[in-house]
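Sanity check

After download, print the first record. It should look like this:
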Amino acid sequence: MRIAIFSDSALPVLNGVSVSIDALVRELRQMGHSVHIFTAAHFGYKDPDPNTYRFPAVETPWTKGYPLAFPPFYPLLTHFRRNRFDIVHTHTPWTIGFVGLRWAQSEGIPVVSTYHTHYDKYTHYIPFIPKRYLRYKIAKHTNYYYNAVQHVITPSEASARWLGRHSVHRPVSVIPTGNAPRQMLDRAELRLRMKVPADARVLLYVGRLAEEKNMGILFEAAAQVLDQDHRAVFWLVGDGPYREECAEIARSLGIGDRVRFVGFVDRHEVDAYYEMADIFIFSSMTETQGLVIQEAMSYGLPSVVVQGGGASSAIDNGVNGIIIGNDADQMADAVLNLLEDEVRYVAISQEATRSSRVYSARDMTESVLKVYDQAIHGPELPSRDAQPT
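Expected C-alpha coordinates:
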Protein backbone atom coordinates (compact mmCIF):
# COMPACT_ATOMS: atom_id res chain seq x y z
CA MET A 1 0.00 0.00 0.00
CA ARG A 2 1.15 3.56 -0.74
CA ILE A 3 0.27 5.87 2.16
CA ALA A 4 0.54 9.65 2.52
CA ILE A 5 0.74 11.10 6.04
CA PHE A 6 -0.18 14.79 6.50
CA SER A 7 0.45 16.54 9.81
CA ASP A 8 1.22 20.05 11.04
CA SER A 9 3.30 18.39 13.76
CA ALA A 10 6.00 15.77 13.19
CA LEU A 11 9.52 15.03 14.40
CA PRO A 12 11.74 16.79 15.39
CA VAL A 13 8.80 18.49 17.16
CA LEU A 14 8.29 16.23 20.17
CA ASN A 15 4.73 15.66 21.33
CA GLY A 16 2.12 12.93 21.38
CA VAL A 17 1.16 13.49 17.74
CA SER A 18 4.72 13.23 16.42
CA VAL A 19 5.53 10.20 18.59
CA SER A 20 2.38 8.43 17.42
CA ILE A 21 3.15 9.19 13.76
CA ASP A 22 6.75 8.00 14.14
CA ALA A 23 5.64 4.70 15.67
CA LEU A 24 3.02 4.15 12.97
CA VAL A 25 5.37 4.97 10.09
CA ARG A 26 8.11 2.66 11.40
CA GLU A 27 5.70 -0.25 11.77
CA LEU A 28 4.04 0.32 8.39
CA ARG A 29 7.41 0.31 6.67
CA GLN A 30 8.51 -2.82 8.50
CA MET A 31 5.35 -4.48 7.18
CA GLY A 32 6.32 -3.54 3.61
CA HIS A 33 4.16 -0.47 2.99
CA SER A 34 5.48 2.72 1.35
CA VAL A 35 4.89 5.77 3.54
CA HIS A 36 5.47 9.44 2.64
CA ILE A 37 5.19 12.27 5.18
CA PHE A 38 4.04 15.81 4.38
CA THR A 39 4.70 18.26 7.20
CA ALA A 40 6.08 21.69 8.15
CA ALA A 41 9.70 22.68 7.70
CA HIS A 42 11.77 22.93 10.88
CA PHE A 43 14.59 25.47 10.83
CA GLY A 44 18.03 23.84 10.69
CA TYR A 45 16.67 20.29 10.70
CA LYS A 46 17.89 17.89 8.01
CA ASP A 47 15.62 14.91 7.44
CA PRO A 48 17.19 11.46 7.58
CA ASP A 49 14.09 10.23 5.74
CA PRO A 50 14.00 10.91 1.97
CA ASN A 51 10.24 10.29 1.93
CA THR A 52 9.53 13.37 4.09
CA TYR A 53 8.34 16.49 2.25
CA ARG A 54 8.26 19.83 4.09
CA PHE A 55 6.18 22.90 3.36
CA PRO A 56 7.72 26.31 4.10
CA ALA A 57 6.98 27.29 7.69
CA VAL A 58 7.56 30.03 10.23
CA GLU A 59 7.70 30.06 14.01
CA THR A 60 5.63 32.79 15.70
CA PRO A 61 5.96 34.22 19.22
CA TRP A 62 2.81 32.27 20.13
CA THR A 63 3.95 28.94 18.67
CA LYS A 64 7.50 28.51 19.96
CA GLY A 65 8.83 25.15 18.83
CA TYR A 66 5.86 24.58 16.52
CA PRO A 67 6.52 25.93 13.00
CA LEU A 68 3.38 26.92 11.09
CA ALA A 69 3.23 26.07 7.39
CA PHE A 70 2.29 28.79 4.93
CA PRO A 71 1.48 28.85 1.20
CA PRO A 72 2.23 28.27 -1.57
CA PHE A 73 1.67 24.54 -1.11
CA TYR A 74 1.41 23.54 -4.78
CA PRO A 75 5.18 22.97 -5.35
CA LEU A 76 4.79 19.66 -3.48
CA LEU A 77 1.61 18.69 -5.32
CA THR A 78 3.71 17.13 -8.10
CA HIS A 79 5.33 14.75 -5.59
CA PHE A 80 1.90 13.91 -4.20
CA ARG A 81 0.38 13.10 -7.59
CA ARG A 82 3.44 11.20 -8.82
CA ASN A 83 3.18 8.64 -6.02
CA ARG A 84 -0.42 7.63 -6.75
CA PHE A 85 -1.31 7.03 -3.12
CA ASP A 86 -3.92 4.49 -2.04
CA ILE A 87 -4.84 6.34 1.15
CA VAL A 88 -4.24 9.71 2.79
CA HIS A 89 -3.97 9.77 6.60
CA THR A 90 -4.15 13.22 8.19
CA HIS A 91 -3.20 13.79 11.83
CA THR A 92 -4.26 17.43 12.27
CA PRO A 93 -7.32 19.26 10.91
CA TRP A 94 -5.50 22.55 10.37
CA THR A 95 -3.29 23.91 7.58
CA ILE A 96 -1.42 20.80 6.46
CA GLY A 97 -4.25 18.48 7.40
CA PHE A 98 -6.57 20.56 5.25
CA VAL A 99 -4.09 20.48 2.36
CA GLY A 100 -4.04 16.68 2.64
CA LEU A 101 -7.84 16.54 2.62
CA ARG A 102 -8.18 18.80 -0.43
CA TRP A 103 -5.43 17.07 -2.42
CA ALA A 104 -6.94 13.68 -1.68
CA GLN A 105 -10.40 14.87 -2.74
CA SER A 106 -8.98 16.26 -5.97
CA GLU A 107 -7.46 12.86 -6.80
CA GLY A 108 -10.35 10.72 -5.53
CA ILE A 109 -8.26 9.20 -2.74
CA PRO A 110 -9.97 8.14 0.52
CA VAL A 111 -8.97 9.98 3.69
CA VAL A 112 -8.56 8.69 7.24
CA SER A 113 -7.90 11.21 9.99
CA THR A 114 -6.71 10.76 13.56
CA TYR A 115 -8.17 13.12 16.15
CA HIS A 116 -5.26 13.52 18.59
CA THR A 117 -5.97 16.74 20.47
CA HIS A 118 -8.79 18.58 22.27
CA TYR A 119 -8.01 21.81 20.44
CA ASP A 120 -10.59 23.85 22.36
CA LYS A 121 -8.34 23.50 25.43
CA TYR A 122 -5.58 25.47 23.69
CA THR A 123 -7.33 28.74 22.85
CA HIS A 124 -5.11 30.66 25.28
CA TYR A 125 -2.31 30.46 22.69
CA ILE A 126 -4.22 32.68 20.27
CA PRO A 127 -4.10 36.33 21.36
CA PHE A 128 -6.60 39.15 20.79
CA ILE A 129 -9.57 36.91 19.87
CA PRO A 130 -12.28 36.13 22.47
CA LYS A 131 -11.90 32.58 23.79
CA ARG A 132 -15.61 31.84 23.56
CA TYR A 133 -15.62 32.74 19.87
CA LEU A 134 -12.53 30.60 19.26
CA ARG A 135 -14.10 27.59 20.94
CA TYR A 136 -17.21 28.04 18.79
CA LYS A 137 -15.14 28.18 15.59
CA ILE A 138 -13.08 25.15 16.64
CA ALA A 139 -16.28 23.19 17.26
CA LYS A 140 -17.65 24.14 13.82
CA HIS A 141 -14.38 23.25 12.10
CA THR A 142 -14.16 19.95 13.97
CA ASN A 143 -17.65 19.05 12.79
CA TYR A 144 -16.88 20.00 9.19
CA TYR A 145 -13.43 18.45 8.89
CA TYR A 146 -14.06 15.05 10.46
CA ASN A 147 -17.35 14.61 8.62
CA ALA A 148 -15.45 15.18 5.34
CA VAL A 149 -13.24 12.09 5.74
CA GLN A 150 -14.09 8.39 5.35
CA HIS A 151 -13.07 7.24 8.81
CA VAL A 152 -11.86 8.85 12.06
CA ILE A 153 -9.34 7.30 14.45
CA THR A 154 -9.01 8.52 18.02
CA PRO A 155 -6.89 7.13 20.86
CA SER A 156 -9.48 6.94 23.67
CA GLU A 157 -13.17 6.49 24.40
CA ALA A 158 -13.19 9.95 26.01
CA SER A 159 -12.14 11.63 22.78
CA ALA A 160 -14.58 9.49 20.76
CA ARG A 161 -17.39 10.78 22.99
CA TRP A 162 -16.14 14.34 22.44
CA LEU A 163 -16.45 13.84 18.66
CA GLY A 164 -19.95 12.50 19.15
CA ARG A 165 -20.93 15.60 21.12
CA HIS A 166 -19.75 17.66 18.14
CA SER A 167 -21.97 15.70 15.75
CA VAL A 168 -19.22 13.86 13.90
CA HIS A 169 -21.16 11.09 12.15
CA ARG A 170 -18.37 9.35 10.25
CA PRO A 171 -17.23 5.93 11.55
CA VAL A 172 -14.93 6.38 14.56
CA SER A 173 -12.44 3.73 15.69
CA VAL A 174 -10.69 3.94 19.06
CA ILE A 175 -7.07 2.91 18.47
CA PRO A 176 -4.61 3.84 21.25
CA THR A 177 -1.02 4.52 20.30
CA GLY A 178 0.88 1.29 20.85
CA ASN A 179 3.84 1.03 23.18
CA ALA A 180 7.34 0.95 21.73
CA PRO A 181 9.54 -1.90 22.96
CA ARG A 182 11.26 -1.19 26.28
CA GLN A 183 14.99 -0.54 26.01
CA MET A 184 17.31 -2.65 28.11
CA LEU A 185 18.99 -0.03 30.31
CA ASP A 186 21.11 -0.23 33.47
CA ARG A 187 19.35 1.78 36.20
CA ALA A 188 22.38 1.97 38.49
CA GLU A 189 24.63 3.15 35.65
CA LEU A 190 22.09 5.76 34.55
CA ARG A 191 21.75 7.14 38.08
CA LEU A 192 25.51 7.32 38.42
CA ARG A 193 25.81 9.17 35.11
CA MET A 194 22.97 11.55 36.02
CA LYS A 195 24.42 12.10 39.52
CA VAL A 196 21.31 10.77 41.26
CA PRO A 197 22.04 9.39 44.76
CA ALA A 198 21.29 5.70 45.16
CA ASP A 199 18.65 6.34 47.84
CA ALA A 200 16.95 9.26 46.05
CA ARG A 201 13.27 8.95 45.20
CA VAL A 202 12.71 10.68 41.87
CA LEU A 203 9.27 12.01 41.01
CA LEU A 204 9.18 12.39 37.23
CA TYR A 205 7.10 14.44 34.81
CA VAL A 206 7.59 14.10 31.04
CA GLY A 207 5.85 16.48 28.64
CA ARG A 208 5.45 20.09 27.59
CA LEU A 209 5.65 22.75 30.25
CA ALA A 210 2.44 24.52 29.35
CA GLU A 211 -0.48 26.24 31.04
CA GLU A 212 -3.02 23.64 29.87
CA LYS A 213 -1.02 20.85 31.56
CA ASN A 214 -2.28 21.96 35.01
CA MET A 215 1.31 22.22 36.29
CA GLY A 216 0.48 23.95 39.59
CA ILE A 217 -0.94 20.71 41.01
CA LEU A 218 2.36 18.92 40.36
CA PHE A 219 4.45 21.49 42.19
CA GLU A 220 2.08 21.80 45.14
CA ALA A 221 2.00 18.02 45.54
CA ALA A 222 5.77 17.74 45.08
CA ALA A 223 6.31 20.37 47.78
CA GLN A 224 4.34 18.27 50.26
CA VAL A 225 6.21 15.08 49.34
CA LEU A 226 9.62 16.76 49.48
CA ASP A 227 8.75 18.21 52.88
CA GLN A 228 7.94 14.79 54.33
CA ASP A 229 10.57 12.66 52.57
CA HIS A 230 14.11 14.08 52.48
CA ARG A 231 15.10 11.57 49.80
CA ALA A 232 12.55 12.86 47.27
CA VAL A 233 13.37 15.11 44.30
CA PHE A 234 11.26 16.30 41.38
CA TRP A 235 12.52 16.14 37.77
CA LEU A 236 10.75 17.56 34.73
CA VAL A 237 11.71 16.37 31.24
CA GLY A 238 10.48 18.67 28.50
CA ASP A 239 10.22 22.34 27.73
CA GLY A 240 7.58 24.84 26.79
CA PRO A 241 6.14 28.33 27.17
CA TYR A 242 5.34 27.85 30.87
CA ARG A 243 8.87 27.06 32.00
CA GLU A 244 9.60 30.39 33.67
CA GLU A 245 6.28 30.29 35.51
CA CYS A 246 7.08 26.74 36.69
CA ALA A 247 10.48 27.88 37.96
CA GLU A 248 8.83 30.73 39.85
CA ILE A 249 6.32 28.33 41.41
CA ALA A 250 9.19 26.09 42.57
CA ARG A 251 10.97 29.08 44.11
CA SER A 252 7.84 30.37 45.82
CA LEU A 253 7.20 26.94 47.36
CA GLY A 254 10.78 26.76 48.64
CA ILE A 255 11.66 23.60 46.72
CA GLY A 256 13.99 25.06 44.07
CA ASP A 257 16.99 23.13 45.43
CA ARG A 258 15.25 19.80 44.82
CA VAL A 259 13.61 20.47 41.45
CA ARG A 260 15.45 19.88 38.21
CA PHE A 261 14.32 21.19 34.83
CA VAL A 262 15.99 18.78 32.42
CA GLY A 263 14.66 20.59 29.37
CA PHE A 264 14.07 19.20 25.90
CA VAL A 265 15.36 15.66 25.38
CA ASP A 266 15.59 13.82 22.06
CA ARG A 267 12.96 11.13 21.65
CA HIS A 268 15.40 8.20 21.89
CA GLU A 269 16.90 9.54 25.13
CA VAL A 270 13.67 9.93 27.12
CA ASP A 271 13.63 6.23 28.07
CA ALA A 272 16.68 6.73 30.30
CA TYR A 273 14.67 9.07 32.53
CA TYR A 274 11.83 6.58 32.88
CA GLU A 275 14.35 3.91 33.86
CA MET A 276 16.06 5.96 36.57
CA ALA A 277 12.86 7.42 38.14
CA ASP A 278 10.65 6.01 40.91
CA ILE A 279 7.17 7.50 40.42
CA PHE A 280 5.55 9.23 37.45
CA ILE A 281 3.17 12.13 38.18
CA PHE A 282 0.84 13.69 35.63
CA SER A 283 -1.83 16.35 36.09
CA SER A 284 -3.06 17.29 32.60
CA MET A 285 -6.78 16.93 31.94
CA THR A 286 -6.63 18.00 28.27
CA GLU A 287 -5.12 14.82 26.76
CA THR A 288 -6.93 12.51 24.37
CA GLN A 289 -4.49 9.80 25.46
CA GLY A 290 -1.77 9.68 28.10
CA LEU A 291 1.01 8.38 25.87
CA VAL A 292 3.74 9.32 28.36
CA ILE A 293 1.86 7.40 31.05
CA GLN A 294 1.97 4.27 28.93
CA GLU A 295 5.67 4.82 28.30
CA ALA A 296 6.31 5.23 32.04
CA MET A 297 4.33 2.07 32.78
CA SER A 298 6.46 0.09 30.36
CA TYR A 299 9.41 0.83 32.65
CA GLY A 300 7.50 -0.30 35.72
CA LEU A 301 6.86 3.21 37.03
CA PRO A 302 3.77 3.53 39.22
CA SER A 303 1.87 6.55 37.89
CA VAL A 304 -0.23 8.99 39.90
CA VAL A 305 -2.56 10.69 37.43
CA VAL A 306 -5.30 13.31 37.69
CA GLN A 307 -8.58 12.04 36.28
CA GLY A 308 -9.86 13.82 33.19
CA GLY A 309 -9.76 13.44 29.43
CA GLY A 310 -8.04 10.31 28.13
CA ALA A 311 -4.84 10.55 30.19
CA SER A 312 -5.92 7.96 32.75
CA SER A 313 -7.45 5.54 30.23
CA ALA A 314 -4.57 3.05 30.53
CA ILE A 315 -4.76 2.91 34.33
CA ASP A 316 -6.76 0.42 36.38
CA ASN A 317 -6.98 2.42 39.59
CA GLY A 318 -5.08 0.82 42.44
CA VAL A 319 -3.84 -2.02 40.23
CA ASN A 320 -1.29 -0.60 37.75
CA GLY A 321 -1.39 3.03 38.86
CA ILE A 322 -3.33 5.56 40.92
CA ILE A 323 -6.07 7.88 39.64
CA ILE A 324 -6.86 10.94 41.77
CA GLY A 325 -9.03 14.03 41.63
CA ASN A 326 -7.69 17.42 40.63
CA ASP A 327 -6.23 18.01 44.07
CA ALA A 328 -2.62 18.46 45.21
CA ASP A 329 -3.31 16.89 48.63
CA GLN A 330 -4.64 13.73 46.97
CA MET A 331 -1.60 13.51 44.70
CA ALA A 332 0.83 14.01 47.59
CA ASP A 333 -0.95 11.40 49.72
CA ALA A 334 -0.90 8.87 46.87
CA VAL A 335 2.82 9.43 46.20
CA LEU A 336 3.78 9.23 49.89
CA ASN A 337 1.74 6.06 50.33
CA LEU A 338 3.61 4.41 47.46
CA LEU A 339 7.00 5.52 48.79
CA GLU A 340 6.19 4.21 52.28
CA ASP A 341 4.49 0.93 51.30
CA GLU A 342 7.10 -1.13 49.49
CA VAL A 343 4.82 -4.14 49.02
CA ARG A 344 2.17 -2.03 47.29
CA TYR A 345 4.79 -0.17 45.27
CA VAL A 346 6.25 -3.43 43.91
CA ALA A 347 2.81 -4.87 43.11
CA ILE A 348 1.73 -1.79 41.15
CA SER A 349 5.13 -1.58 39.42
CA GLN A 350 4.91 -5.19 38.25
CA GLU A 351 1.33 -4.79 37.05
CA ALA A 352 2.24 -1.57 35.21
CA THR A 353 4.96 -3.43 33.31
CA ARG A 354 2.66 -6.35 32.52
CA SER A 355 -0.28 -4.25 31.34
CA SER A 356 1.95 -2.05 29.15
CA ARG A 357 2.77 -5.11 27.04
CA VAL A 358 -0.87 -5.71 26.16
CA TYR A 359 -1.00 -3.27 23.24
CA SER A 360 2.08 -2.85 21.07
CA ALA A 361 2.92 -0.55 18.18
CA ARG A 362 2.42 -3.53 15.87
CA ASP A 363 -1.09 -4.08 17.28
CA MET A 364 -1.87 -0.40 16.71
CA THR A 365 -0.64 -0.57 13.11
CA GLU A 366 -2.65 -3.67 12.31
CA SER A 367 -5.77 -1.92 13.61
CA VAL A 368 -4.98 1.17 11.51
CA LEU A 369 -4.54 -1.01 8.40
CA LYS A 370 -8.03 -2.44 8.95
CA VAL A 371 -9.38 1.12 9.01
CA TYR A 372 -7.50 1.89 5.77
CA ASP A 373 -9.11 -1.16 4.16
CA GLN A 374 -12.58 -0.05 5.29
CA ALA A 375 -11.97 3.47 3.98
CA ILE A 376 -10.75 2.24 0.59
CA HIS A 377 -13.56 -0.26 0.09
CA GLY A 378 -16.32 1.61 1.92
CA PRO A 379 -18.93 4.14 0.69
CA GLU A 380 -18.12 6.59 -2.07
CA LEU A 381 -16.05 9.65 -1.21
CA PRO A 382 -17.60 12.91 -0.03
CA SER A 383 -18.00 15.48 -2.76
CA ARG A 384 -14.82 17.44 -3.47
CA ASP A 385 -17.07 20.50 -3.64
CA ALA A 386 -18.28 20.13 -0.05
CA GLN A 387 -18.06 23.35 1.93
CA PRO A 388 -18.01 24.05 5.67
CA THR A 389 -21.45 24.42 7.25
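If your output differs, re-run the checksum step. Summary of this record's structure: The first helix runs from residue 16 to 30.
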